[in-house]
Amino acid sequence: QVQLVESGGGLAQTGGSLRLSCVVSGASLRTYAVSWHRRTHGPGAPRELVGRIRQSGATTVAGSVKGRFTVSRDNSENTVYLQMNNLKREEAAVYYCRAERGSLEYLGQGTQVTVSS
Hints:
By secondary structure, the protein is mainly beta. It has strands at 3-7, 10-13, 18-25, 33-39, 48-53, 59-61, 69-74, 79-84, 93-101, 104-107, 111-116.
């Protein structure tokens, strides 16, 4: 069974940095794409795609975070990272990672990021 566990969330100041980790078990990062999403407005709100790393290792990020956020992975640790720099207050959210392969999707429990002024 595929499981994802996020960590690294917490409190950052505006303009500060955090690095989130997503440990994937039960699946290889070479066969699953992993994406990062965030939900900023409570449990009923949609999640926003922040970035993705494909099976090939190619990465993409949303336009709103380009130049500030990067997605990377360590295949030996089966871990995907989201490096967030120059954080903005409005980016406080629960950040989730998701593993995807075809119609298969697995979601982590999320990690809270708080950004103070």
